[in-house]
Amino acid sequence: MSTASPLKTAILIFANSAETESARKVLGSGCKKGLQQSLFEKLNERTVRTVQKTGLPYLIYTEKEQVGNNFGERFSHAIQDVFSKGYGRVIAIGNDSPELTANQILKANNALKDGKFVLGPSCDGGFYLMGIDRESFLKTDFLKFSWQQKSLYTELIDFAHDAHLSVEKLCPLADLDEEEDLKKHGILWLQKLKSLREILLSINFDEVFPDFIFLKHTLTLCHIQISFNKGSPVFIF
Question: What is the DSSP letter of 55?
């Protein structure tokens, strides 16, 4: 990892361990805890691989490194802690946006270098990425936001306007927080993301998601395309 400097950007991966995620998020009514945990382990691994492709330094804050009594306190403290290590800019992401790419993170970094406040909105009213510089961050302000609520994105936009910050908005992405997210976006993710198909192929799909027959059929078709089709693929990766 590169030496920290006021001109450097660090990526903050703010994500719990697979064990904690599987206890907090239930993605299937008949899911066995150990198998669901395997899915979150794969998602965590994918997030780290995506971040590593950027070449930027990164820090991982699981529940072991997080400090505070609620999400807002833990998240704000983590950002402040990264700044205390000497970095001048932070790009904060989680582990639950399967479509997030290294290019999107690098786009956020370029916007940060231009002095912008960066937000990647999620479909549930929150965000999957936030980029902020040290001069614009004030922990007391961040503690006031309605964290994990549908109004969060709007509140952050209002904060940026009140602080006279130029905002760079990335494209909206869906995140995986609950069973309903998988029902809404699962087929699209399977069609677009080879890495997610590989995740689901690596675990016992019937036991993890026994109620999602439509996803199983899509996954099977994608697997056939990967394994046997030597011509043009039916699904876009």
Answer: T
